[in-house]
Amino acid sequence: MASSGGNLPNFPSLMLPYCRSNEADDDSSVVGVKESKGEYCRCFHDVVTNEFHHVDFPEAFGKTCRGSGFGWLAFTQETPSGFLINPTTRQRIDLPQITTLPGVVSYRPDRAGFEYVRQDVSMCDGKVYRVGESGSWMAHFYVNKIVMSTDPAHKDCVVMGLFESCLGGLALCRPGLDAEWTAVVGSTNGYTDAVFWRDQFYAVDCLGNVDVISYNPGGTC
What we know:
The longest helix has 8 residues, at 135-142.
């Protein structure tokens, strides 16, 4: 969702946290919430016009937003399934499951609180070991950011995931086409941020070094 402020350039709207609308006071003391028959809604704030647009958005409830671009939002959740969604058209495109990311060993929904097993590295001796994690932890902390190269509805779109892993921390996929994430061999220092600019992905590692990640649009990752 983009704002339009006369001759000003378009700016993306800010998505505010969800809240059950019938919990809000009549004067809407909770920012971003209005009455909508008890449905969960999200508020999008137009920073140019200072307008608030309330949208019933059940697809986002209980999910963690990990990126945005070209009018789309990227979500993770406690189960392995992540997805991209356009909040205006409601078109949805699934991402490969996070169990295909490097470092994720297994997923068992019957292990309450420890549904996932992942690999980590000891800071003391550098040895790799396994640790159990909850679905909530994985949704909030394992996948740190999702970056899109172009509109995900376009067949040439490539998505890069920035994730917590001792095995590199970057992976690529073609949304809606690839069944698995493809690991990117990069810095062993871990990554803190990533962007897409002028046909290239750029990732910053924990020491401030910038890596340029090449990909093959329209082909395999």
